[in-house]
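Shipment paperwork, digital attachment
Item: protein structure file
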Amino acid sequence: MATQEETFKNIVSHCKEYGFVFPSSEIYDGLGAVYDYGQNGVELKNNIKQYWWNAMTKLHENIVGIDAAIFMHPTTWKASGHVDAFNDPLIDNRDSKKRYRADVLIEDQMAKYDEKIDKEVMKARKRFGESFDETLYRQTNPRVLEHQQKRDALHERYQKAMNANDLVELKQIILDEGIVCPISGTRNWTDVRQFNLMFSTEMGSTADGTMKIYLRPETAQGIFVNFLNVQKTGRMKIPFGIAQIGKAFRNEIVARQFIFRMREFEQMEMQFFVRPGEELRWFEYWKQFRLRWHKALGLGDEKYRFHDHDKLAHYANAATDIEFLMPFGFKEVEGIHSRTNFDLSQHAKYSGKKIEYFDPELNQSYTPFVIETSIGVDRMFLSVMCSAYKEEQLEGGDSRVVLQLPPVLAPVKACVMPLVKKDGLPEKAREVMDLLRLDFNIQYDEKDSIGKRYRRQDAIGTPFCITIDHDTLNDNCVTVRYRDTMKQDRVNIDQLHEMIRQQVDMTVLLRKLL
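Attachment content:
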């Protein structure tokens, strides 16, 4: 049985071997924390984005989309606070010369206390069997209580330090907890200091006429600066939302865990504008809707949880993350934030433009409050891959690696295979391809044995394999093999389109959210 670390390494390797994710510019030894999506990866990624876009714009008549530029006027980032406050607390280990985020080191330490508690509970469950009362055990066992007490004390101390931006205290916590560098194993730490994460560049045609600008660290500000444009041209009435999918860039010092934290990444964000005083009701609505969106994919309800923020941004009055159980623990995939009216007010202040909404029902103008839903496309991609990846032992000593992707997200919906490359079977297979290819992403494969072809399709998550054999020429039926069960059915060619559609049609998935 592979450990979680080994499984994750296998997933990373699988992503490269089967055309999902490649290290960027690999022929030049790559670029740290930058990745390219391959031929199967881009299809899966596009399907994720389409599912999100449709759930926002098709299911909500008061949400529209935009596509704002990556380059923005530099004052945008002054107004948003990114120039002055978009920092991570960093600490170096003098022996390994490696740099870490102080907050991540401390959060990992809290996770270790959680793991110790879970191990105690697991051992007790094995010991007591069906009579085991987990709640009572957690409340009364001395070892569990000791770990919980240490964890709670650390959590309280860490929360205070983060809210106060106390860098000295963050270092002291690391020293007091005995946190060591994973590389050197020593506690020889530098002081904690702040590091701004924005990439900067210059725009202009002459050396004298250049302007310092930034690659956007988030897509949200492109929505805020276009609030009036969209509201007026779309005749939008509060409450309404603006959705956007786009690239963002952060100079992450501690980029790790494959595509989980990258320097160039993609976000799916929606800013929902509401009346002041109604924001917390809408915050709760979007929390529940977004969780339903995730769970509808069937990756496992138990793999999701809400995590309320310990440290709220100074402008927020509520914030929570939707976390997903990755092989390296529960990690944030999406954030839902109540940002009050901070963003629009700041842009009004710095631009000198009036950014308000006239509410005809109240007969007054005001600056709307905002609820934000922000999900990382790459993190969503990784959560889907980690959930789908399975190493299975089969009867007869054989084994297979299969991606049990939700069919609606699978890069390839079906593979058409002639049993042999003669006797008119390839020609018949091409006819079947032509029936399906305009509505579904279909592959054709006639190389190697049928068993090897099945394995290739299992490895990229194709839900259906359609085999054309000699009987097909007489009865117009094909053999359909199902990815997850490996069972096979004879299906008339005329029924193929509807059979596939029922499994992969996104509207079927979206109806679950109505």
